[in-house]
Structures are given as C-alpha cells and as structure tokens.
Automatic annotation (TrEMBL), chain A:
This is ABC transporter ATP-binding protein. It comes from the Bacteria. The lineage of its organism: Bacteria, Pseudomonadati, Pseudomonadota, Alphaproteobacteria, Hyphomicrobiales. Coiled coil: none annotated. Keywords: ATP-binding, Cell membrane, Membrane, Nucleotide-binding, Transport. GO terms for molecular function: ATP binding. It comes from Aminobacter carboxidus. The keyword Kinase does not apply. Belongs to the ABC transporter superfamily. SMART domains: AAA.
Automatic annotation (TrEMBL), chain B:
It comes from the Bacteria. Keywords: ATP-binding, Nucleotide-binding, Transport. InterPro entries: AAA+_ATPase, ABC_transp_ATP-bind, ABC_transporter-like_ATP-bd, ABC_transporter-like_CS, Oligopep_ABC_C, P-loop_NTPase. This is ABC transporter ATP-binding protein. Residues 8-253 form the ABC transporter domain. Belongs to the ABC transporter superfamily. It comes from Aminobacter carboxidus. The lineage of its organism: Bacteria, Pseudomonadati, Pseudomonadota, Alphaproteobacteria, Hyphomicrobiales. It is found in: Cell inner membrane. Coiled coil: none annotated.
Amino acid sequence: MASKEILRVSDLCVDLFTQRSVIRPVDGVSYSVAAGETLAIVGESGSGKTVLNFAPLGLMPTGVNVDLSGSILFNDTELVGIAEPALRKLRGGSIGTIFQDPMSALNPARTIGRQIAEVSELHMGLSSSQAESRALDLLKLVRMSDPDARLKQYPHELSGGLRQRVMIAIAVAAEPQLLIADEPTTALDVTVQAQIIALLKDLQKRLNMAIVLITHDMGVVAGIASRVAVMYAGRVAEYGPVGDVLVEPRHPYTMGLIDAIPRADDAPGSLFRGLPGAPPILGAPIPGCAFAPRCHAAIESCHITRPALVSTVQPLVSAACPIINKHNHGGAYVQH
Amino acid sequence: MSSTKSVLRVENLVTRFKSVERGKWVKAVDGVSIELRPGEIVGLVGESGCGKSTLGRSIVGLERPQSGRILLDDIDLSGLGGRKLRETRRAIQYVFQDPYASLNDRQTIGEAITEALVIIGIHDRTRQRRRVHELLDQVGLPDTVAERYPRELSGGQRQRVAIARSLAVEPRVLICDEPVSALDLSIRSQVMNLFLTLQKDLGVACLFIAHDLALVRQAASRVYVMYLGKIVEQGTSLDVYERPTHPYTRALLASIPSADPRIEATREVPALLGDIPSPTNPPSGCRFRTRCPSAVEACAVAEPPTVWVGPGHGAACIFAAQIRATEVVPQPEPQRLPQQLSA
C-alpha cells in the first residue's frame, strides 16, 4: 500500500482481571491501517472486537484490571505500556472515537456547542470563542441542518441520527489521524445509517483519516471498508481485502456469517440459513480452534492445535484454517 | 379483501400521548387498520418513531387506544371489560425485544413458565412439569433449562424461553417486537427458523415488528409499511419488495446495505435525507412529503387515500398508479442533493 501506515498492531493480547475471574478477550491479534484507509473489524458479541480497540486507549470500565502484551504502534509511538498523561493527549487528539450509543457518550447537561468546543480548547489550544466558532464549522462539516440553533441545544433534543453527527463532530474536532468507530450505525435506522456512512466516507477523504470500524453488519463493511478482519472468540479468523473476503470467504466462520445474510432471491417463508450452536463463553484461552465445535469441516486436530493465521492462495487474504486452505486450494498454504 | 377470515382485525386505531409541549398531543398511531389471518406471519416495518411498537402495544393492551376497534375472531375487545377482557386478550401474546428485561432474574425458567400455566388453570404439579418440558422442547431447549436462572442462559436461549412462555397460554396471535434484533447474526437465523416452524406447526398468527427489512421479507407473507403513525403501503412480501409503490417504501428498500462490496461501490447519494419529522407537528397532507422526491403542491393539501394497485397491494400516494405502471418515481423538481460543505 502506497499511503503511510498509521497503526500497526502485532500479536496483541488483552487479559482482563475482574474480582471474580481472569479472561482473555483478545488473543494474539495483528493488523495494520494506513492513512485514508478503512479497516473493518467484524465479529459477534464477545468476539473481543471492542476490547481490542478500547483497552489500549485506557477506555475500560472501572474495577477491571487490564494487562496488555504485544505491540501497538501508532505513528511510531508504542501504546502498550504508555503512561496515562501521554495517552490522554492522544485520545480525542490524534485518535478520535465514536461509540454505538451517542446518548450515553454525550453529556446530557451541556449544550452541543460546548461539548464540541471543549475538544478544540483542549487539543488545539483555542480560546473559548474561537473554539465555539470552530464548533459551528464542525456542525456544518457533519452536515447538521440548522447548525446555529443546534449549538445551543442539548443532546435529548436531538434524534439518534443527529446525536451521532454530534459525536462525529467531536471525534474529528482535533483532526485525528485515526478514527475508531465502534458500531457507529447499529442504533440507527437504515435510512439514517446510509447518511452516516456517506458522511464518514466524505470526512475520511477530506482529512485523510485512517478509520477502524467495529461492526457486526456486513452491509456496513461492504459500504465503507477496504479491508476486513473477521474475529471469533478473541482471534482473527480471516483477514484481507473486502472484495475478496466478502465475495469469496475462505474461513468456515466467515462463510457461515455471509451465508446467513438473507438474500433477495430467498423465497418468502423459506427457512433462514445460519450457523449451528453458539459462540463460546469468554474464559480461559481455548487450546484448539475456537470455531471447531460449530464447524462442518473440523477434524480432530482442530480441537487440539490452534490454527495459525496464514496466507491463502490469494496472497492478500489470510485465514486461520488449515483444512479449508488445503481442501479448496490444493494444499497451497504458506506460513508467514 | 380475502376469503380467509382474519383472526385479528385492527380498525382505524388511534393511540395518542400527551406531548411535553403543553396542551399538545402526539398521535403515535393515527388511524391504522391491519388484519392478520390464522397462521400468517405479517411484517410491520418502518423507521424508529413511526409508531410500529405503539401499535403492537395497543393491540395487547399495554397502551390504551383513544379510538378505533380491535377485533379478535370478530369479538370487539373495546366492548369488553375486566375479567372477560383479560381472558379474551390472553389469545394475543407479546414477545419483547429484550429477553433480559422480560424475564424475572430471581425465578427459574421452570417457575416463569409455570406461572403462565397457573393463569390458564393448570394447577396439577405433574401436568405443569410435563407441559413445561413440552414447551421447552417446542422451542428447541433441553429439559434441564427448567432448573436454570435467566442469567445462566445466552441471549438466544433467553429469547426461546420468552417464546415458550408466551406459547404456554396457547395464543392465537403473537405480537413480536424486534424479537431478534438484540441477537447475534449467527443466532438470529436459529430463532427466526423457530418462528417459522411454530407458525407452521401451531398455526399461530404472528405480527412481526422489525426494522430489519431483509429479515421481514423472508419471514413474512404480507407486509405493512408504517410512516409517522400511518400505514403507507401494504401487500404481499413479493409485491412490496419487488414492486414497491410508495416512494417511502422505495427509499427504505434502497437504503438496505448490501454485503456485496461490488454493489456498495455503485451506491451514490443516500436514498433518503433528513430525519423523520416530529409526530407532534406532522406535515399537512401526506406526511412523507417533506422527504419525498416526488412531492408536489397537492401533497400538502390533503392526506392521500390508499390507492389499490393490485389485489391487496395498496399505497397511500397520489402517484401510486403512475409509479406502479411505469416503475419510475416521478421527480418534478431536480433531486435534492446533500448541501455542499462549507468547511
């Protein structure tokens, strides 16, 4: 890829220590994102996709101790083990974040204008009047209708779609190089979702941002991402360009996920396709392939040895499944 | 409209709420008529705030409608009261979106289902236990689940329990409000298939309220599309999805993202701009006109009546016949594009 790499995550493990238990929601994950590019991280609940992105930023619920290992290079700065003050400068500055539920992420007692202005004051050193006029520009940038009036409104006065636009305005206020968006459209209607996706794409072009988009919706992935990492039980099952992974999935889990999406030629009243069983409950790391109990292609060794994420015959795509690589592609699979 | 007698008929239902603005009312459901035939899955789709949940809640009596009629097997529920109403309405059960919230976390699953059995007069312990196991089996859960607490179950299992409990009173109609939207994709199909099987095996009619249009298309034989408290289009799934006639339905369908990046690459402007207007002050005439690419002056004057463009296929739009004939949505003004960015 020609453009500059912004983020490189290598072999990241996240262990969470709560009062009762130790779990490993992220288990040896690697990926990278370049400027102006969108990487989608897809997975079901409990797959570790949110923890993967927010634990390194220090964004975890209180009462949970986080232990990180591996490496996260953000523009040559190592985020694993970074001190809190340095991290605080990055959060909201060169790394912007958007959450699924804008209502709980916004302060209900402060105006929209103030909440947006705050970011420019903090990260760009603007005076409060400068920051407020910048807030107005930002509302225009995220295509808010009637931006002047919106500045003085409170979050509860806005619809879900408008609130999400406010979140985006806050996230891009300091012109971040990396935007982490956690299910930004999940709580929205399809019509509004299409608007938000269009907005994110447009902002990305203008600011040359790298975006890491966390989602479970393959439609969103297809609409915005250039590459995708499919996660299952804390590990990457398949990783590669969207055009390859979504069109010709290789890992049985990805195949099952994509196959489960209702298609326009499914007859009304016909049964839904899907995967049997349920994802594993988070606990100790699983020795073999976490998907093996639900997999139609699994053999004995799948339950014992953890499959490595290796290149497939399509060199840009890697999949953590030796069986499928062998069967479909004549045994051609290469260790990284 | 059809020879089969309907099990549930809603006529001209209006449900309104007091607005935060003094003296104003929000008509969340504004003159809606729908019907369900025995053993039929009917979809009810629309954006959030369109009143689809309020309609469902009004049918089971969780909201009190201001006017209109709800008929169950031709018995008008509004004419009943007290015990008679409760007993009659038992035939309509509700499945909520969030099974975490609809189950008591201090009760075992067996106790939760038994409670429903007691209501219909099954007091014998052995009969209760047998029926609990039958019901669990019907929703694809093992007997052992009866001893478990809700927190010990996964989201999909909890939703199955909620369905088992609603089936305990042998309902004729299930109102399912977003029953799978809290579930993961790989679990969703399993629960959807359960609905399809129950409908076939037990003949329960099902009103399926959802915002996931692709899901409804496959599950439902007929669909109602709702916008700001009104039904704007209705018909068989095939009619509504293959030959959408109301401009709103067309925009909704065009907004469904495809999982195929080759199709997504051709997507240009979002099909529908702006948000659904506030129901406190709905636009005059056609409520969709403020977002409609085809709106003309006449749309602001009078509320468009439902135009029947095929058997059972209707759309509340003055252009309905024209759209159906030409497959083109008229665009009197140049299509509004998103405003240019100033930043």
